[in-house]
Amino acid sequence: MVEASSSTRDRIIDAAMRLFGEHGYRGTSVASIEAAAGLTPGAGGLYHHFASKEAVLTAGIERHLSRLDALRDIRRLFLDLGDLRAELTVTARYLLAELDNENELLRVLVDEARRRPQLLAGAVDQLVSRTHTDFAAWLSQRTDGRLTAAQATAITSVGLGALLSSRLLQTVLGPIPDLASPRVDDETFVTTWVRSMLCLIEDPPPLAPRSMLRGTESDKTTPTT
User: What is the architecture, at CATH level 2, of domain 2-61?
Assistant: First the structure.
């Protein structure tokens, strides 16, 4: 009995997240979720497992995020390859694959980010912020401290931003006609991304520490006496 209930719960989450991604949260009714999950639409079967439609959304986001443990701790991705180019290539391919696997989650985040900021704040933190922090820390360690914290953060912002935006644009805008914007295949994108990252690492931007930048800004804005 427990196994059957768990299976029904999973089917409801699967159906709901797919429909949320296709039609948006507001455009998806409880009855349509029940029908897609193999339940009698409108009979209230969903409420035997969840208190509300929003509870289904919360459970769906939590389940998606539980699959992203490796993405949230990016340092687990790397074997001791001994070659930075190879490690960056593996990283780019892995992150793009994970973003493709979580396309439903990305669509829900894009659709609901403004309407449900509190509900989705944790998802954004785990999907983006923690990955950014871990990648910057790995980059500093991998380059034997040649990069300052500010430089590692800046390079990470450019690198991960490019990977994430390459998928978010497709999620938000849908397929872009080749004539309007020629599509770059993933292999070319990854090769270009790796070369760009290596150039930034080899010749990092000359960024001053944040404390120095604050002091400079303060000097500019504080009148002299």
Answer: Orthogonal Bundle (1.10)
